[in-house]
Design goal:
The protein is α/β, with parallel strands linked by helices. The protein is built from 15 helices and 22 strands.
């Protein structure tokens, strides 16, 4: 079993306690372990981050860009070994893990470019002989909390912009999937990131939550995860001047109108629903189908789902990987049982997959459910697994109403050949991400990303929009004479 160190104050350290890491394809034996840091170690990480920030904020943006560019190069050079760790700890297919690794490098490259550009605006001033401009400055030490479902790309898209802007970070990877985050930290460290600018806290959340969230030096917290945990963090920060960026849950819908290319729509919906075993915040989990094409679309959909190959991510033939942990598997199975109790019909799947060696892993059959209503729990609540529910509606207006009848508002898609319907959908769907004739997933590094309602906070991620979170605006007026 591999024993890994974590990065604190520019040094790779261990502790007296360890956290075991398991492969969800076979959970019988751990394959690696990472240090289980204590609360005192978290405080020490903030000590280092405070000192690291003091120097990094004064470092040339060109040097910051150089570090990010070099880290991106190292990640690409190490793609196979990094992707193998992503697969081993999360379960993703080899193709998904390599894609995540390379996209993480893209985030570093993109924000290296932004670091070189500078951020600010030249403004007119009513006072004679006065030149005024705004400039953006880093806010300080930012706590980064990332989830287990995208263990490399999520910290990359959070850390890259805040480091490019001159902030320092304390980074808490998910307990289930710490290796990917440590791989990212290793690339940044090897690229020359100064000591203390990035500190990685591997530990059990229940034991270090207070030290993570209550430190008075925190200027911002960026979190991706469940609404339950996001709400708890928000409340804990409520009476402090700490920014909170939350990317939370989703119950994403794809609408198939009567004029859609049905085979293409079925393929896109399956890709969006069952990639990463449905464990993506933007995964399609609801399909709303115009009644005249409902029967034909469902037939095509089930055919596509039943063509998926379930297996370990390390097998090149696998197209549907295991869920990330026994806990997540059991949660999805409980949601399926409740759906059937509430009247849903299983068109395909609907159970754990325990065939052969899969008996030792976290496998759930890809599932399509029919006969659901707006009140069925599986229609309203995030499942985060390979489960897709289908409903028929009558026309465009009813379809949009069904999309918007949700506490969430992350992503939605429409499939249609009619430009007017596409544009109306973009205007009327209450979601932060809208797709037309493509998947609800797959938003590139330069595209602002985030949801409405309970899916997130006002601070978006990605693109230059993220700078609203990781920088503060200062207005400077200079009187140069009449």
């Amino acid at each position: 079993m591999r024993s890994l160190e974590t990065l604190v104050g520019g040094e790779w350290v261990t502790s007296g306690e360890w956290i075991d890491v398991h492969d969800p394809a076979d959970v019988r034996t751990p394959f690696a372990r990472v240090p289980a840091l204590a609360a005192k170690d978290v405080t020490r990480a903030y000590d280092h981050a405070e000192r690291g920030f003091a120097g990094w904020k004064r470092t040339s943006p060109f040097e910051r860009a150089r570090v990010l560019t070099e880290a991106a190069r190292l990640i690409r050079a190490r793609v196979e070994e990094i992707a193998a760790d992503v697969t081993a700890e999360n379960g993703k297919t080899g193709a998904e893990a390599r894609g995540e690794t390379l996209k993480s490098a893209d985030f570093l490259d993109y924000y290296a470019g932004l670091a070189r550009q500078g951020y600010g605006t030249l403004l007119h001033d009513a006072r004679p002989g006065t030149r005024t401009h705004t400039q953006r400055e880093p806010i300080g030490v930012i706590l980064v909390i990332s989830p287990w479902n995208d263990p490399l790309i999520t910290p990359a898209r959070k850390l890259a912009p805040l480091l490019a802007a001159g902030n320092a970070a304390v980074f808490k990877p998910a307990t289930e999937t710490p290796l990917s985050g440590l791989r990212l930290a290793r690339a940044l460290h090897d690229a020359g990131l100064p000591a203390g600018v990035l500190n990685v806290v591997t530990g059990r959340t229940a034991e270090i939550e207070g030290a993570l969230l209550d430190d008075p030096r925190i200027a911002g917290v960026t979190f991706t995860g469940s609404n339950e945990v996001g709400g708890r963090i928000r409340r804990r920060l409520a009476d402090r001047n700490v920014r909170f960026q939350g990317e939370l849950g989703g119950k994403n819908a794809s609408v198939v109108l009567r004029d859609a290319d049905l085979p293409a729509a079925a393929k896109a919906v399956v890709a969006a629903s069952f990639g990463q075993a449905g464990q993506r915040c933007t995964a399609t989990s609801r399909v709303i189908v115009d009644r005249p094409v409902h029967e034909e679309f469902v037939r095509l959909l089930v055919t596509e789902v039943e063509a998926l190959t379930v297996g370990p991510g390390s097998d090149p033939a696998t197209t549907l990987c295991p869920l990330s942990s026994p806990k997540q598997r059991d949660s999805v199975l409980a949601d399926l049982a409740r759906a059937v109790e509430q009247g849903a019909t299983v068109l395909t799947g609907g159970a754990a997959d325990t065939e052969g060696e899969r008996a030792h892993g976290c496998y759930v059959q890809p599932t399509v459910l029919a006969d659901v209503t707006p009140e069925t729990a599986v229609w309203r609540e995030e499942v985060f697994g390979p489960v897709l529910a289908v409903r028929a509606v009558d026309g465009f207006t009813e379809a949009v109403d069904a999309v918007n009848d949700s506490e969430f508002g992350l992503a939605a898609a429409v499939f249609t050949r009619d430009l007017a319907s596409a544009l109306r959908f973009a205007d009327e769907a209450e979601c932060g991400q809208i797709a037309v004739n493509t998947t609800t997933t797959g938003w590139d590094v330069h595209l602002p990303f985030g949801g409405f309602r309970d899916s997130g906070t006002a601070y978006k991620e990605q693109g230059d929009e993220v700078l609203r979170f990781s920088t503060r605006v200062k207005t400077v007026a200079i009187h140069i004479g009449a």
